[in-house]
Amino acid sequence: MICVWIDTRVLVAAAVLGLLVERVLGITDARLVQGTNVNLGEALQFLREYDSEASRMCFRVSSARWAYSTNMTDHNKRRMIEEQTLQAKFDKLSWKRAMTFDWTRLPDQMVRRQLKFLITNSRASLSDEKYNEIYHLISEMKDIYSHVRICPLNNHETLFCDLELDPDVLRIMSNSRNHMELAHTWKEWHDKVGPPMKNKFMRYVQIANQAARMNGFLDAGEEMRYAYEESDFENQVAEAWKSLQPLYRELFTYVRRKLLQLYGPNVIRPEGPLPGHLLGNLWAQDWSKIIDLVAPYPEYTSMDVTDEMLRQGFTPLRMFQMAEEFYTSLGLQPMPPEFWRFSMFDKPNDRKVQCTASAWDFCNKIDYRIKQCTEVNMDDLISTHHEMAHIQYYLHYAEQPYLYRDGANPGFHEGVSNAISLSIFNPVHLHRVGLFNQNTDSYETNINFLMLMALRKVAFAPFAYLIDLWRYEIFQNGVQNMNSAWWELRLRYQGVIPPIPRTESHFDAAAKRHIPADIPYMKYFVALLLEFQIHSSMCFAAGHEGPLHTCDIYRSREAGRLLA
Ligand SMILES: *[C@@H]1O[C@H](CO)[C@@H](O)[C@H](O)[C@H]1NC(C)=O
Ligand SMILES: *[C@@H]1O[C@H](CO)[C@@H](O)[C@H](O)[C@H]1NC(C)=O
Ligand SMILES: [Zn+2]
């Protein structure tokens, strides 16, 4: 029998019982109700079948998604949706079968853990009707998001309202220094994205919470946090933010002073918050695009090695070969032959493709690919190494059961890849690979470099932290006043305000795709902390001496062993 606890009194009792079970079995959590089957042989048999079927399903879905992402036709889109629908059905069925076991009482830790993953990673507790509904709500919101087109500032006669997020809106927000144009673009984007999906989002919150409660959680926010397997996760991230806050404040006040010099006190209040449209990014999450306005030593050459790459005749293929050589220099495996045969390294000109760089695991232990519309420039060179770190991670856990083939926690994959990026993007490494021919010991070069890193990493911290704080709050307290709740958090953590007043008819959180797309965000905050910890450990293993930003783990077998 499958039964579900909804009553909170039962939940309290369950929590107490859970604690007892935990002591006896060493289980981290026993909140989920389960069936009665405690036959280990049957559980093992079920998991074996699940493993091969889930891998096969994942291969089919990945293949269909790949086909669509690299060739965006209606036919390929339909095929992808068909496969995803099959997978959703399979997930629901697997959940039902997993629920017939009393997993807390099975005498095998691996079996318990896999069943727990199956049961908790799912909205399958919903009725078929609601399960379909939330799935459709999310895809409708994603559709709205990807179809928004906005108008440019109308200082010309002609007015074509056909600006897309990528590349048009992003380009204006990073390159324009006209605050009227920035405010206009910001407003257009926020006004056109949020309101059309507000009702859908409110319904989504309701159903997501229902699913979470049926799984024994208080709300969907608690369910999101559960993936970290840390009972005081919220406190841990709050403490981490508190320790970063003084550094963020210094960056903030420094940047505010520089922007004040440029835009004047009518646009920026000398003692006030920062208007979010002036920081070189639509969401004010990465300020590196205004490095030209804030660099401490603007007369010193930038670290951008793009010109040198062009001079040396780099190609996208050569960039991938260079990345592979980085990993083999650490003693890690080269990319498999299928990687070289099937990856997409360039943007094709005979069809429409989805250009966001990504690394793919086709779940068959053979097929691993990267999709990237590579251009010969420094950002893409770093991205190539970053994506290939994901492939290294895939290769290293290939022999694990399907349910374990993922990051050690939701922030880990990105943390590992970002740690590699820290080794690639620094003066010492770029010098070693013959791309940066300046003196790497120059004080001014190093300070400019550290400022650039601060604009990327330190500026990102409060943003990465608050996105899910907002979501946790909405899941817990409901959707009333959700736009003012959003701006309260933006002000409190980032010190950022909108360029023009907002109301509850707006829905500004939706301007960030992860909100309509139902993708958790706290993992990026966790990854930001992990990347420096992982980098620092690898540097220690490599015997690095001196400040961390000059560490490059290239050719260190010790660092490679530790990473593996
Ligand atoms: C793109 O997909 C269509 C099917 O919609 C197919 O006919 C075509 O051959 C594909 N193009 C490439 C280059 O794969
Ligand atoms: C375009 O210009 C007209 C008049 O010049 C003005 O009324 C209108 O608000 C402007 N629209 C935008 C989007 O700036
Ligand atoms: Zn990544």
UniProtKB/TrEMBL annotation:
Binding site for chloride: 228
InterPro entries on file: Peptidase_M2
Protein residues bound to Zn(2+) 1: 386, 390, 414
Annotated EC: 3.4.-.-
CDD domains noted in UniProt: M2_ACE (cd06461)
Record-annotated active site: 387 (proton acceptor 2), 387 (proton acceptor 1), 514 (proton donor 1), 514 (proton donor 2)
Residues carrying covalently attached carbohydrate according to the record: 71, 154
Keywords: Carboxypeptidase, Disulfide bond, Glycoprotein, Hydrolase, Metal-binding, Metalloprotease, Protease, Signal, Zinc
Any one annotated GO CC term: plasma membrane
Name of the protein in question: Angiotensin-converting enzyme
